[in-house]
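Quick one: examine the sequence and fold tokens given here and explain what the tokens say about the fold. Here goes:
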Amino acid sequence: MVSIIIPVFNEEKIIAGQLESLTLVMDEDTEVIVVDGGSKDRTAEITAGFKNITLLKFAKAGRATQMNYGAGRAKGDILLFLHADTSLPREWKSEVIKAVNSGFVAGGFRIRCGSKDNLGRLDSFFAYISGLRSRYAKYMYGDQAIFVTKNTFESVSGFPEIPIMEDYEFSKKVFAEGKLYYSGLFVDVSYRRFKHGIITAAALMFFIPLLYWLGVSPYSLAKLYRNIR
């Protein structure tokens, strides 16, 4: 079984569309777990209306802790972590099963950013650069729909519970456990995180990761991340 785990917080505008699209590509050997981090809007209410979706409520928002919480209650021997604004390709499951059966312990998809948004020329450029990162970076980020065998997830003790860059650190730990699978298929990612303009886009793609690699605390960076969004 593959367990899809979606951490959410105040996503009432998009969660219904995400869950409707997932029901079209689910089968009896797939489960979808939505972990709500104490949303103040109708996210949990909307999710509860989907009978084939498992809703878990977590006391505090935090992507890493929410994903770990969902993974601990997942039935699948393969876990796939999906952002609420990311859409899987139709062939996602066969791609994941093929990777695991070929001996890969984890993997992820390429990013097609902003394909469903009406973007100007400059925004289109940043969307393109975001996609390039998913093709050539050594490690993977959460918007690539990271999947991992449950045994490997448990062997690295899940995501480090830090407020930002938890996906990068997780990917590094998993890389040490075995081969990563870099799928040629695309996930569609919303451009909404860059909607405040060029400074936001540049900060999210370049400056925050650079500052992290230079040793700035993820707790300090998380404050900046919230401000630019």
